[in-house]
Write a structure and sequence with these properties.
mainly beta, Porin, 8 strands
């Protein structure tokens, strides 16, 4: 993917009319469907968990000769969080009224696991400008193709004291078990709508709305099955070389 991005960058040098460099920040939410693996609490196997993602990127945007089509390529960083809970909110409420009764009877040792995955990002995108290209305000539609390469992973684990009092070695061992199967590569495709406008001379702001993102790879080979990101936004600034 990096080689493709560099090739397109070189090709567009002879094609562009008003290139620009963009810096962006993109928060988002996603649903992660858990598997029925032994590392998932039995009562929550195959359930969905809500996670969050944030990305930072720098991209070079090069409009082609007709100024309608634009290609972008760059580099970035992203971080994703999601968690596995043994007890649901409903079980917590029930325990208030049941007083000393346990939440439920399964003997899964962990009550909570929170994952943090860091990625080196190679974003590539193409867009079509709907408004007249030379206006100060531009509206465009496009498609982001994002390749994320895992560079760091960690897990925070909390043992259920009703079933196991952990020793220091138990905590470290559990962390290793829950992080070793993280996917080293995640590819994402996301359609978007982008609005950008000039603020002062060559400086401007941009805003992207991504209604739905499609992950071709689960975030973890054992724990997760599918990932769907929704209602992501991107905020950024650009400098135009015109």
């Amino acid at each position: 993917m990096l080689a493709v991005s560099l090739s397109l960058f070189i090709y567009t040098q002879a094609q562009y009319t008003a290139p620009r460099i963009e810096a962006s920040f993109a928060p988002g939410l996603f649903f992660e469907q858990l598997s029925n693996d032994a590392l998932v609490p039995p009562d929550h196997a195959n359930s969905s968990r809500l996670g969050d993602v944030v990305s930072f990127a720098m991209q070079y945007a090069a409009p082609l000769k007709n100024e309608r089509f634009t290609l972008k390529a760059g580099l970035g960083f992203s971080q994703r969080h999601y968690s596995i809970n043994k007890y649901s909110f409903g079980e917590f409420i029930s325990s208030i009224f049941l007083f000393d009764s346990p939440y439920h009877g399964d003997t899964f040792n962990l009550s909570y696991v929170r994952f943090t995955n860091n990625y080196f990002q190679v974003p590539l995108s193409g867009s079509y400008t709907l408004t007249r290209p030379r206006h100060n305000f531009q509206l465009a539609i496009g498609l982001n193709l994002r390749s994320d390469f895992l560079i760091g992973r960690k897990a925070e684990v909390v043992f259920d004291s009703a079933y196991k009092i952990p020793q220091p070695g138990d905590i470290q061992s559990a962390k290793q078990v829950y992080t070793r199967n993280a996917s080293t590569f995640v590819f994402t495709a996301e359609p978007y709508i982008e609005a950008s406008f000039s603020v002062h001379k060559n400086l401007g702001l941009l805003f992207q709305f991504m209604p739905l993102s499609y992950y071709s790879t689960p975030l973890d080979k054992r724990l997760t099955v599918t990932t769907v990101e929704f209602f992501s936004f991107k905020f950024g600034a650009f400098y135009s070389f015109k």
